[in-house]
Amino acid sequence: KILTIMKWIDIKEKLPEIGQEILCFNGIKVVMAIYDGHDWKIQKYPSGHDRTMTGYWTNVVYWMELPIKPE
Questions:
Q1: Which of 15, 33, 36, 62 is in Cβ range 3.0-4.6 Å of 25 for a Cys bridge?
Q2: Cβ of 40: how many Cβ atoms within 10 Å?
Q3: Contacts (Cβ under 8 Å, ≥6 apart) of 51
């Protein structure tokens, strides 16, 4: 097994690939998002609802690749 060390990447150093699913951090919270080349698109699953709501997240300062799925 290969141990992967995950680390936060400053958006000033590098941005994710367009369309890449990532974790992002705005200094307060961590959410999963997709980077669209300009904005950080998030999906919300409101409790008690079956539908997905989407929105955009602001003030992202760090991002991280998603971990590898378990086998």
A1: 62
A2: 22
A3: none
The 10s digit of each residue's pLDDT in 37-71 is: 988 888 766 555 555 557 788 889 999 998 877 77
Give this prediction's pTM: 0.76
Cα gap 41→32, rounded to integer Å: 9
- Return the residue matching tokens 């919300």: 44
CA–CA separation, 9 and 54 (whole Å): 24
Distance between start and end Cα atoms, the chain: 11
Residue 13 has what DSSP assignment? T
| Nearest of 55, 7, 15, 22 to residue 37 by alpha carbon | 15
